[in-house]
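ok here's the first one, seq then struct tokens
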Amino acid sequence: MCPIIEEDTRSASTAAITALAPFASLVDGQRIVLKFKESNAANPTLTLTLSNNTTTSAIPLYYRGYGGSKKPATGFYVAGAFVSLVYDLARGRWMATNTDYDFSVGTITQAEIDAGTATGARAITPKLLRDNFYTETEVNCICPIIEDTRSSAVAAITGVAPFASLVDGQRIILHVKYTMVNNSTLELTLSDGQTTTGAIGMWSSHANANKNTTFGTIYGDTYWEFIYNNTDTKWVMVGQRDTNTTYPTIAQSDINAGTVTYQKVVTPKIIHENCYIEEIAYTSSITALKANKMYDFGTVSTALTIPSLDATNDLVSNALNFYALRFIAGADNLNITFPTGVIVDDTPTINTGDYVEIMINLYVENNTNHFYASIKVWQAPSQNS
């Protein structure tokens, strides 16, 4: 499995990283996702305490940068970053997988998503996808590292496999030694030391299935994952190696229509307006609730008067806008007073300890605002017994 491993005790940006691992031994090809508790210092190392209470040595971290493999400089990985790593036993290092930092379109930050105003389209990291609107599942991702045994940047790639036969769905991580060129083939010598697979064509997943593959530039000393397609007798790159420099951008009209089926890049503004709900701790200084935010009123022990609703700012055009709030009841028979004009579909009884969520939807018809509220109450555990 490919576990997510969090740091233990590091409280400052130091180079020595320690963490607990759920496996009992560290083997070649072991993959992990490391969550950084703090940003890294220069030349970071990772020491794992294994499930059998033994520890590994302080193993250095590397990534592919311009000109070759590099150790991360200070602050290369920020606090909270999730980084996919594979253990390279032969070189005694953890290597970031499927990374090539010659990619130059720029990266969206969490601050930009929080603000929701930036309109320039850029790449997004797996961490931000996970933190904002991605549900992760674990998959089996231990697969062997195949060393590229070429002596120069030729199309015919060779290597030695640890398995005895090549079957459909076999995954490998190819450690590319020299720059990978177009129309490359891979010939593996199997574990018996004699049988070979023959030279099998290599394809990028976005290439036309009836044409030779164009990879773009894949530099030496990088790691790329491939899967064997027995039906078409080809190695196919897992994921997509995109060599474009300009990209179509998701517009609000695309989301409203819901009919576009091809990939586009996305701006922080679109994510903020469609996928992101900001949570705000309510204070008495808030005189009007803004749309598309969740207000936490904490514990409410007296009658609650909901502030007015701001129907001018922070609205998303051509989409449903809402106002959300929640609280815990601190008294029985709590009364709620809504702003003038809000229609409430039902008013349930609220008692001490109940969890209450209120959703007010804003509909606009003939340039007139209409507000409809619903109240959801979860009874305190003692009332359900």
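and now the second one, same deal
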Amino acid sequence: MFKPKYKIKKLFKTENERREYYLKVYIERKESAGAFVREGFLYCKQLAVSGASKPIQAGESAITALCVSVSGVVWGATSGKKSHLFYYMPKSPCGQVFDMGQLGPEAGETKATAITVTDDNTVVVGTAAGNIYEVSGRGTVTEGVQEWMAHYVKRTKAHSPFKKESIAALCYAKSTKRIFGLTRRSGSVFEYIPGKMKVRILVKLGKGNYSPVMACDDYGQLYFVSKGGILRYNSENRRLDSLTLPDKKLKEVTALALKSAGSEINSVGAALYLGNKAGELFEYLMNSLKATPVGKPCKMKNISLLAAGKNGKIYGVAGEENDLSHLFTFDPVLKKTRDLGVPLASIEKPWYGYNFGAIAAGPEGELYLGEADRISHIFIYHPPV
């Protein structure tokens, strides 16, 4: 039961005194108004065409990889008994999710771990089995209410030297139009060449010495965390540099996001944001000597997902596997973190978001969260203006 900090006054000497008191109570109530996300607009989408197809089967729909194309199409892949490939076209007149079927049925794929998309809409997917798939030839939808065009997708399994070694991350450098990746066990940093479907190993971070996370800027500079220190790999001159000294708190980094310099007011410039298993968030400003702790955004442990929003803020998800995940935000200018709460949608259907396996920022400020549960949805969050 809510109990205000201020004692209730039966009589007020003036009208202003009464208004001031109730304003304080209102603010206090607003700041403690439940455990759910209560600012911005949050809704969810089933992994299906509404009224025209069935959602991806329960036990096969956990979303573990998401990315967004330059045109705003959201691509994703699932994990479970089978791995599915899907895409979501959020804009009118479509607004639907299309299941493109099983990813790699001949290989029996069960877990997608990474996905990225190029400017020409070539999609590359990495799996826990170490396989890489190139997807092209997607048909388009002309009308999201009555007519559907046939969808033709060519899925090609590329030659991969990583047998039974999970692909931990994939990213696309827009300016250089190159795709880079990182493996989980050996820490192999590689380049994937679309069209030719070839993999070229660039450098190895070393078995057991690194965190399986990677960030990439538009120019092909890759960022990693190894032995608690931040590394940068320049793909042009193939040089690996150490940016910071080791920090024991960064030995178990579970999420990494890169914020570009941007044009927002009072921007702090380009920066890396790191989350660890203890639920702590760190900020690394480019050319500084160390990553600075900015606090624990919420009571939950394990920051599993991070993304840089178009508004200059950082968004993330914290929570262990059996917890209720919390969405949080960090303002780099004010240096403040906020626990936004548990994602709860009422549109397209009432649904609680317990666990999430992927995150991606959209081109118009929206945030996409991939639910990773037995029955899963895409959650779309529009931060307040």
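notes on #2: The mean pLDDT is 87. Helices lie at 15-31.
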